[in-house]
Amino acid sequence: MKTIVICSGGLDSVTLAYKVAAERALTRLVSFDYGQRHKKELEYARRCALHLGVPHDVVDITAVGRLLTGSALTSGGPVPEGHYAEDSMRVTVVPNRNAIMLAVAFGVAAAEQADAVAAAVHGGDHFIYPDCRPAFVEAFEAMQRHALEGLARIALYAPFLQLSKADIVSEGARLGVPFAETWSCYQGGAHHCGRCGTCVERREAFHLAAQNDPTSYEDPDYWIEACQQYQATQGQ
């Protein structure tokens, strides 16, 4: 199946791109510049496309992003530190982000007669991001059937929907994903900070998957403390 992958340059979406390249016909990577503070992730998406030998498009929706205020990823507020599952991480939600990106990607897919759009939403995102949950994926695909009725029939491929981050690391290792060529940190500094929620989640996932983590973290051990603190609150 001819498949377009929405690729941020993060570990999940790069692993998805390698999975699609191995199992389907990967036709293109589509990335989005929505004014995110960690815009450097787009360079890693470009590298992924180069490695896989497919076109890469960066869609500029910064004008839209400026209106999606309230998120620590776009509005300049501090990025919270700690475990990814903490309630404090909800400030990283960008309203309707996935719905906007998917709508654009489905239009691209229809224009080039692709069969599917692939997105790397996964089980670890369900508690924070409503547009990463199974109900959203099912509803969005149904909506697109109506939006493109008579023009195209495009599937929404989300193979990680029920998987954990550790599962994705294991899958990436199987596929030979160059994990060092992925970017997760919300701070967007010279190195992964090691303290924001997505850094902690990344480091924990490699640990749980029993895989070597090649990432350079400014604080490589903070994840242990963050995980212990989260587990303590869950035991209360």
From TrEMBL:
Cofactor: Zn(2+)
Enzyme class: ligase
Listed CDD domains: QueC-like
Positions that bind Zn(2+): 185, 193, 196, 199
Binding-site residues for ATP, renumbered to this chain: 7-17
Function: Catalyzes the ATP-dependent conversion of 7-carboxy-7-deazaguanine (CDG) to 7-cyano-7-deazaguanine (preQ(0)).
Family the UniProt entry places it in: Belongs to the QueC family.
Protein name listed in UniProt: 7-cyano-7-deazaguanine synthase
Source organism of this protein record: Mesorhizobium dulcispinae
Gene name per UniProt: queC
